[in-house]
Amino acid sequence: MTDPKPDLSSKDPDWWRQAVVYQVYPRSFADADGDGLGDLKGVTERLGHLAALGVDALWLSPFYPSELADGGYDVADYRDVDPRLGTLDDFDALAAEAHRLGLKVIVDLVPNHTSHRHPWFREALAAGPGSDARDRYVFRDGRGAAGELPPTDWQSVFGGSAWRRVPDGQWYLHLFTPEQPDLNWDREEVRDDFRTTLRFWSDRGVDGFRVDVAHALTKELGEPLRDLGGPGSSHESALLTLPPGTHPFYDRDEVHAIYRDWRTVFDTYTPPRMAVAEAWVPGARRALYARPDELGQAFNFEYLQAGWDATELRAVITESLETARAAGASATWVLSNHDVVRHASRLMLPPGTDPGAWLLSDGREPPVDLAAGLRRARAATLLMLALPGSSYLYQGEELGLPEVADLPREALQDPVWEQTGRTSKGRDGCRVPLPWTPEGPSYGFGAGGAWLPQPAWFGRYAVAAQDGAEGSTLELYRAALKLRRKLLQGESLTWAPDAPDGVLHFARTDGWRCVANLSATDVRLPTGEVLLSSAPVADGRLGPDTAVWLA
């Protein structure tokens, strides 16, 4: 192994505990070579935008070699860059420029599965049943008289069976697309290879890792494999009904030994590398992944999934802070990411609305008031940024972008569309390439077009259209992040005992407060100096869907 490159990041080992992290989906962020696909040079050229925004770190979604069967989460080589996105030299230049600007760099790691184009899987197919190469994955004989039935009733997250048959008659497990075969984490060779990957990127100056599907690595693979109860059974319901840690392939107790081992790798660096788990499990179980001797932090999806309701949000915030504190971690907050409907649209959907059905209607049933959605999204942002812990922002939310819900069917590229029999449009609507300028063939995304069609109204949300514009969402984010750096102390809050119905009111260390009115009527503001507001405040009254920070 080559000597580690100089550590250009801050020496503060706890920088991540209350950081603001900006998620970059590289294929949709900026296109430097004009081929319609975002790339690493494009990210590097636009890092000034992130520095000016005031975030602490950027998280790069996968940029590894991939056929894009699942938007880059089907990885063919964990220690290289997809040629369409650049080279390792381009990555090094990106990391160096980010560090020069004071930004940390977090990369996505996808340890549950590889691409079917990964050399290991190609070797497994060639080697045949019972081979050592095939044991790196989860291959099994089928059921039925001739092995024609899948080994179990396990279902793919994207629809259909989680098993795919190969020409020699065996079946392999894929919890996501068939192009994403699951690895066998019982194999020490698999574990050792990922240790090598952790060191490879850490040695290149990476400050941390976002761990994809962190709860699914270990599986109960002893024979006979255990069914979940039929094709209609959901993984989520099984997680709630089975004893904790005993699901056949989700959130098994054994997974934590892997992350304790990873922590020994992280701690060999100065400062230690951070990590955050994507673990779709109940809060008490999620906290286990965030323990100091494991990954240290885990995404809080209860907050993302909560409705625009003061009672519900207060309960989620309180529980999230308590579970993080019990684990010795800091809480995490997120409103949007590459997998969900953007919150400027989602928060306006009536309670009980199925976002998938709404997307199938091209965003017409029910219709969403864009102006009202933006007002609510701005308030939600000020509320989130005032909470103790780390905030994760998704590219474009600082522009107030709503979901592009009416993408034409022929343009869809998310595998969910085909794998569900064209009954779910998937996640492309939040992945449409960003608008940087009000005009141009791709609104400044690149010299050519964009890999997903951008709507005609995109230009008015562009960075250049909002830069320096008083009251713009971009300037609100900049002001909030600048002020947050000055105000943020401690990792606790105190709820005000006299908040009106529909209002969230809490104090942070040193006495600054956040008041968010989630009700449908004006409320009187508490006494104090208004430091920042998501919408104009007049006559001491806080309007609906508005949040303020008070001194």
TrEMBL record:
SMART domains in UniProt: Aamy (SM00642)
SUPFAM superfamilies according to UniProt: (Trans)glycosidases
Assigned keywords, A-Z: Hydrolase
Every Glycosyl hydrolase family 13 catalytic domain range: 23-431
InterPro entries: GH, GH13_cat_dom, O16G_dom_2
Top-level taxonomic group: Bacteria
Record family assignment: Belongs to the glycosyl hydrolase 13 family.
Name of the protein: Glycoside hydrolase family 13 protein
Organism field: Streptomyces hintoniae
